[in-house]
Design a protein that fits this description.
This protein is α+β, with helices and mostly antiparallel strands. It is built from 3 helices and 8 strands; from the N terminus they run ββαβββαβαββ. It has one domain (5-124).
Amino acid sequence: MARKNCYIAVAAEIDNELNTRYTVKIGSGDSPRDRCDKQRLKMLGYTANAEMRRRVIEGVFYKTSSLETFLQNYATELGFVQPDYGYKAAGYTEMRGDFETIQEALKLAATLLAWVRAECDWIKEFDPKSGRYV
């Protein structure tokens, strides 16, 4: 059974050479803020983890069961695959992309958030000025 909410977050990880790397995490949870806090993620936005069965988007037929799975597949199609940091962090299968800078990771996150804004009924996004989700 799919969890209630789907979130998009960024994470800092340490690779095998002890360099800090960044990735985008597309996950789900009934309480996304708590889940992200426990995994040391900065959540950028969340929405309902809606069923995505039998949807045609930009001429492509998707059979995924949830928004979370769809967004993970979409990021993979964009060329951002699951990174290998030499260890399996919590939720590692939900990570997409391996970036040298946070700005690069934020570009992928912005692409995913733009899709969610256009296709979903609602979204709560992080507002850095207030530190709240609006």
